[in-house]
Specification:
heterodimer; A: mainly alpha; 54% helix; rod-shaped; B: mainly alpha; Tetracycline Repressor, domain 2; 15 helices; transmembrane helix (chain A)
Chain lengths: 61, 314
């Protein structure tokens, strides 16, 4: 039993692999873009880390 | 093994990328994308364009995932109904287990990513929407009550509310009204379809109102829901997301919609058979345009407001 050199199955797999590749690439771009947006907007990026951080405490009036 | 049998073997579970995409119900997703985007844009809080784009994308993926779960569960009746027999699972292009895996994986992905990109209130609402569509509607209501699409319609009504929550972080009256617009629109939209898709639901044993209570009752229900919808749609024009432009669009569209429902009410099956359900089909087509134009008008109002026009004077 021999598959023809270019069976329809190969074309479908090729298209599917190509599609998954594009989707994964898109995901990388999205995560990178979201990271850039969130970092540049200066959202809180510090948290308690077992070390005293006076800048994180609310000022007492 | 002959060439023909090779083809049969490789066909099953070897779908193309497009077949997997079709599992996500792209046409339903287009409506979800549009309504979620409008919900996000009409909110009084601005969102970074990239965060907004990603949020709408994740809402759409969540909706697509619930579509895949719906196709996995309903494969047995999809093969019977003419309208759904060419879907990827009944057509033998995608295996049911693959549809289930895709649905579950994309549901988790969409919820987590929306939480990270926007906020966890929106992510929670998306998770509930997926649960509502896949479990409450598909697995429970669809085959057990003629009120299936009335209650199940809530799943399709959540996207603009999720869009609003992405921007504001909470639910408010405007978000509830946008939800209500789609919720009340869904029954007349689907019952019109059920009237001219005559035997499909009957053959599949899905208890649509046309099957359980008859066509006369269905026509009366379409009329009642359309009146309620008109009041709701026009009333929304008076809120903070409405304005003169939206109100004008809503009045015209609802006059057309009420007229269509009136014609459906006045007909009997003999009239409908004579002209091949022309009135019901045109009402169904109008219902699609109706929703797009209402949300489009809300969007236009938001754009006008950003230029200092639109909306009602304070």
């Amino acid at each position: 039993m021999n598959f023809p050199r270019q069976h329809d199955l190969h074309k479908r797999r090729m298209g599917r692999n190509f599609g998954v590749g594009i989707v994964l690439l898109g995901f990388v771009v999205i995560v990178f873009g979201l990271t850039v947006v969130k970092v540049t907007r200066g959202e809180p990026m510090q948290a308690f880390d077992h070390v005293s951080r006076p800048e994180l405490t609310e000022p007492v009036n | 093994m002959s060439d023909a049998s090779i083809d049969t073997v490789v066909q099953r579970g070897e779908g193309s990328f497009g077949d997997y995409f079709a599992l996500m119900k792209p046409r339903v997703m287009s409506l979800v994308v549009f309504t979620a985007m409008v919900g996000l844009l009409v909110a009084p809080v601005s969102v970074h364009p990239f965060v907004g784009f990603c949020s709408v994308l994740f809402i759409a993926i969540g909706a697509g995932a619930s579509g895949a779960l719906n196709m996995w569960w309903d494969a047995d009746i999809d093969v019977i109904m003419r309208r759904t027999s060419s879907r990827p699972i009944p057509a033998g292009k995608v295996a049911p287990d693959e549809a289930l895996a895709l649905g579950v994986a994309l549901s988790g992905f969409a919820v987590v990513m929306l939480g990270l990109a926007a906020n966890w209130a929106a992510a929670g609402l998306l998770a509930f929407t997926i649960f509502f569509y896949a479990v409450v509607y598909t697995m429970w209501l669809k085959r057990s009550t003629p009120q299936n699409i009335v209650i199940g319609g809530a799943a399709g009504a959540f996207p603009p509310m999720i869009g609003w929550v992405v921007a504001t972080g909470s639910v408010s009256i405007e978000a509830i009204l946008m939800f209500a617009l789609i919720f009340v629109w869904t029954p007349p939209h689907f019952w019109a379809l059920a009237l001219f898709m005559k035997s499909d639901y009957d053959n599949a044993g899905v208890p649509m109102l046309t099957v359980t209570h008859g066509r006369r009752t269905t026509r009366r229900h379409i009329w009642a829901y359309t009146l309620l919808l008109a009041a709701l749609a026009i009333g929304m024009g008076m809120t903070s997301i409405g304005g003169p432009f939206y109100l004008a669009v809503a009045v015209v569209l609802n006059a057309m919609f009420v007229l269509g429902a009136w014609k459906i009410l006045r007909r009997d099956e003999a009239d409908a058979e004579t002209d091949g359900y022309a009135v019901e089909k045109s009402f169904f087509r109008l219902s699609l345009i109706y929703l797009f134009l209402h949300f489009g008008a809300l969007w236009v109002e938001a754009i006008l407001r950003s230029f200092g026009y639109g909306g009602w004077p304070a």
